[in-house]
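Cross-posted from the bioinformatics board.
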Amino acid sequence: MKKLSARRRHPLAAVVVLLLALAATGGLYAAFAPADKAQADETAQSLAIDEGKKLYAVGCASCHGTGGQGTSDGPSLVGVGAAAVDFQVGTGRMPAQQPGAQIPKKKVIYSQAEIDQLAAYIASLGAGPAIPTKNQVSPEGADIAAGGELFRTNCAQCHNFTGKGGALTHGKYAPSLEGVDPKHIYEAMQTGPQNMPSFPDTTLSTKNKQDIIAYLDAVNGDDTESPGGLELGGLGPVSEGLFGWVFGLGALIAVAVWVAARTAKAKKS
Amino acid sequence: MSTTTTSDSRSREKAPAGERVADWADGRLGIYSLAKANMRKIFPDHWSFMLGEVCLYSFIVIILTGVYLTLFFHPSMNEVEYHGSYVPLQGQLMSEAFNSTMHISFDVRGGLLIRQIHHWAALIFLAGMFVHMMRVFFTGAFRKPREVNWVFGFLLFVLGMFTGFTGYSLPDDLLSGTGVRFMEGAILSVPIVGTYLSFFLFGGEFPGGDFVARFYSVHVLLLPGIMLGLVVGHLILVFYHKHTQFAGPGKTNNNVVGMPLLPVYMAKAGGFFFLVFGVIAAIAAIAQINPIWGIGPYRPDQVSTGAQPDWYMGFSEGLIRVMPGWEINFWGHTLVLGVFIPLIIFPLVLVAIAVYPFIESWVTGDKREHHILDRPRNVPTRTAFGAAWISWYFVLLVGGGNDLWATHFHLSINSITWFVRIAFFVVPVLVFLATKRICLGLQRRDRDKVLHGRESGIIKRLPHGEFIEVHEPLSQDALHTLTAHEQYKPAEIGPTVDENGVERKVNGPERLRAKLSKGFYGEDNQIPKPTVEEYKEITSGHGHH
């Protein structure tokens, strides 16, 4: 005890005591707190809704309203469905960092389990499209060529021929589809996030969506080969022209300078 | 008997084989006098004089690769189903033109490489012509006697643009099809005759089944034929006029200092051809161009974002993108000014630079021949005009690529469009003024250098404590180069009263010319170059001043 009392005025003593106190209360809480499973006699679904509601209250309610009814800062989420939540939160777009022309995708801050809980809560506010199953988004056995035709008909106007993205009005844009999870592509088509129109099953069937996913996987996926060499962003003649001027003509002028470096001088009289 | 005669003649008069061949050819083609006159022709050397060669060689590369492509391309719009080796298009309906281009790209040996060489060479050909034209412009190489050759070169550039346009439209892909649709829209906007012209060009409603075949003839026969003739004419005139050269010691308006055509220049030029071919082939092997497999076949109901023409047509895209969508409706007719005005400005942009040489020669009234090039700074008004034109062209290119500027620099496409609308009028003026100031500043610097020498960076302390910087006098060569240019006097309106006291009317053009001339060469528009007296006065002092 003497040792202890000798050190009780040590500058770190307060920190140690605080840590001990925290550990004690935390441990006690863990020991005595009602175990969820044992206490709640509800289904897993309603549990997820409850958890989702808590997450919602912390991360989303400031803009979308306490009950998902929407405010001047964010739209109503009643009836947007689980798919919309899975897309928006799963790509990091939500929660939004700041208002702007468009909410960009960024690092995902929720785990998939939390996203599912949030989705369950939002889905409980009103019926909407559900998160697609693995089978629904799988490009296995889909018709790539038909997907290409559908893509050029419905998507290329904004997302470019092979999904490299493009500009919209007033700083908005259609993002590049490179490296986007097939599930998120499916959900985007289903729910029409931000400036995108939605393509419900009545417009593009599940089969159609699978074809489009398969097409994107073929022309803009990780294993896509570029038969002609460097892709130059896949943006068409503008980047090609820039490359031609800088590297094509640039190299030729460098060669010309080199060839002309030695030359004749008039004889000194 | 025959043996004796042959051995006889051989011993007496039979020349070596080479000489006999030469003699045979000379007797029929008159090669000797041609070679005698031209083999020792002198060409001056400067890297910027080789820009024209870059164009010539890339043109040859285009012709060679183009011939290869014609062997496999089917200029037909018949609909076929694709069964080639590119999986994401299998089973799709497309025109035979697109199908055969896919075949060239994936199933013909070397096909894709040749296609890419052809297309890259076309971009570089046009870029080379642009830079070559600017070189000729800024150095004043277009002055008498080379005005006609300037026009030839300009026509080559314009024809090159349209050869390129008809060329990249041939595969009938979704990107180029959008471009052809754009052109059709522009034609339709022409009042009264627009519809008829469009129907005439496409053989009926757009797209019809004819335009690929028609564009094909234009692309491989008509335009290249005219261009080839112009290129030959261009080169003959270069030979006839002899090449210009920069001012320098020993270089006058009456000589050409450089290397003889044979053997030096021929070896250099021959080697340069292969270097150009090599660089273009390397670019084509490294970087993809116009990947039609990703773009897909053309269908009038489809369109993609990022649909721009190749760079040389980009300024027309810019014109149409930034033009407000004005239209006037009257008595059931529509005048689509939003498209028609850009269609009118399109040739004006090009003509603006093409006619400048003639305006300048009218302003100077100079009828002499010029074989010594100007340094751009010594002709501030011309240089400023050229820079302003380039900035104008560039502003339109920005407008043509407004969507990519928006996505890559995180800007609003609307703001860019508004910027271009204003910059279209403002930027050339600002660039004109700034360039002129810079030129005059450089002229002042040259004047200082001639009169006071080069700053040596050596600080000298004089006995009485004063510090001065030692200036080194320039070499005789440098002095010559800096003072070789001539300066025009602004043209005056001549006497308005003749010797009999009869008053003469001064007409509008004469007054305009005097005014322009003052703007070109008047006070504050050029810095008087140092005179011999000034130079002597300063240098006769004791090394410093």
